Amino acid sequence: MPLTTTLARVDADLAAGRVPMARQRLRGLVSSFPDDLMLRRRLAEVYRLYGEPAEAGRWMYLEEDRDAGETSAFEARYRTPQERMRALAWRGPESLARSSFAMEQLAAVRISCSEALGRPVDWDSIPSALDDEPDDRTGKFSSFLVGAGCLVVFLVMLGIWVNGLIALFD
Description:
mainly alpha
C-alpha cells in the first residue's frame, strides 16, 4: 500500500478513535521508511495520546524540538547505548537522516555503542541483547534452568498421558 494511502488511513483511524490501529499502521510505516522523520514524529504524537512519554521520546529522539522530559523517559527506559540503538530502529548510514541534528544524534548513539562493546558497530548490524551481557556464564546457567524446566514439564505430561492410558484400558 502506498505511503499516502496508509497515511490517509492513519488519519481516518485517528478521527474515528481507533488509536491502536493508527499506531500499528505508523509502526509499519516507520519500519518501512526508517529515515522519514515525519513518520517518527506522527508516531510520537500517537504515543502521547497513550500517555507514553518514553515511547514518544523514542520516536522524537532525532528531532531538535523534542521534549526534554520525553527524552529523559526514553533514556531511562533504554539505559544502554545498545538498547537505544535497537530502539531507534534506524537502518543504513547516518547520512540518510534528513537533518544535521538527526545525523549527530545517530552518530552519537552508534559511537557510544561501539565504545561500550569495544568494537565498531553500524546501523545494519545492531548488536543483539546477548552482546550486552559481559559474562557468558549467567546465560549458560539460565539456559540450563530453562531446559530443566522443559524436561520436568514434559515428564509430568508424559506421566499424565500414561496414567490416562492405564485408566482407559482398566
